Automatic annotation (TrEMBL):
Protein name: Argininosuccinate lyase
Annotated family: Belongs to the lyase 1 family. Argininosuccinate lyase subfamily.
GO CC term (a single one): cytosol
Domain Argininosuccinate lyase C-terminal: 365-436
Enzyme Commission number(s) of this protein: 4.3.2.1
SUPFAM superfamilies, A to Z: L-aspartase-like (SSF48557)
Gene name tied to this protein: argH
Alphabetical list of InterPro entries matching this protein: Arg_succ_lyase_C, Argininosuccinate_lyase, Fumarase/histidase_N, Fumarate_lyase_fam, Fumarate_lyase_N, L-Aspartase-like
GO process terms (BP): L-arginine biosynthetic process via ornithine
Pathway stated in the Swiss-Prot or TrEMBL entry: Amino-acid biosynthesis; L-arginine biosynthesis; L-arginine from L-ornithine and carbamoyl phosphate: step 3/3
Domain Fumarate lyase N-terminal intervals: 12-301
Protein's cellular compartments: Cytoplasm
Amino acid sequence: MSNQNNQILKNTNAQILDEFNASIMFDKELYSQDIRGSIAHSQMLCEQGILTKEEQEAIEKGLLQVKEEIESGDFKFTLATEDIHMAVESRLTEIIGEPGKKLHTARSRNDQVATDFRLYVQEKSLSIKAQLKELIETFVNVASKHTETLIPGMTHLQHAQPLNFGYHMLAYANMFKRDFERFESSYERNNYSPLGSAALAGTPHNINRKSTSDKLGFYEPTNHAMDTVSDRDFALEILFNISTSMMHISRISEELITWSSYEFQFVRMSDEYATTSSIMPQKKNPDVPELLRGKTGRVYGNLISLLTVMKGLPLAYNKDTQEDKEGVFDSVKTIEISLSILNEVIKTMIVNKDKMQAACKVGHLSATDLADFLVQNQNMPFRTAYYITKDVVSHANSLNKDISELTIDEIKEANEDLKNVSEDIVMYLDLRNSMNARTSLGGTSTKQTQKQIENFKKWLKDN
């Protein structure tokens, strides 16, 4: 091979290695956090007499100019600067000269990236939490309109007992409230500043970590430098929290897909969130809920990816953790748009009360009420009442009726032990009465559902 070809190969390999090693093309997402951290660091260095007031002012002014250039699109990101930290520092030095070279005193890229990334995760935890609150409020508002709208409650996707649709909506409000609390808990647990940990062992410079911690809105500095620069628990937590929220989104999406089918027709989605088939104009496809359901797998992958990256890493910082950011950025964008879209889907869906109520007359939803009646009013053991109820269900099937439609005479015909049963049983088997009979805490009765709505409204006001 000629020397010329060898040189071309070397240049090609060098370019590939630069691309492989650099993170600038994705960690530029952290420019705002990086500049915030650098301003706080420069202010602390000035307070400690490590920078002069003039140097600090020049650094801060220069950093704000860099931020403006990035946000206006004038800043040129190149592989030569490798990452966002060097990109900002290099441009700062171009703008202000020698003082720019002093900014990195008493810190390392290890604690710098840990600070930037943690600031990003903390900010996103708060904004996602706010979106979850909006979604919860939407579910509560829909629930408020449907505390008397009957819908078949299901187990194993089989008709089980009558519920009100408001109660069903509150199940999702509760799911997303737990998500809200997870993001809140993670924020509290991780709101500690890595800045000043340096490479892994702290710094000999006379710094004040509490000062930078306060300036950046953290509660306190972290208390162990080596753990801090290698810790990515905060990133794993937001990925887990997002994955759990997306799992909940996938569950309501699945129900929306089912409910909007011809077989159910419980709800109709706005045309904004459904599309027609390319060859079948009569079809209206629930594309948006399907995409929401599908994107859950995407964020699961990001969580598993980072767990795998972190598995077995020795202390302290390792280049492996450069792989921590893209999955988090992707999952954050996915949950943000998913929550926004789901909120609008729920707000704009049309509920078909008649179809829901008609479906309640399939599957003998009030059968359990017959057994409960026999236990409460006939002093009958539950297991005996259970088998008698099976006979009544069989008799109703033979008459092509739902159990809720049987007359007192038809009920008595079903089993010898029912010949003296009270006529009150007919009232017990009524679907609306069945729903409203469940008055225990957390039950589906209209009264209990309204109590839960009031509790949620108080919670929304307090949070």
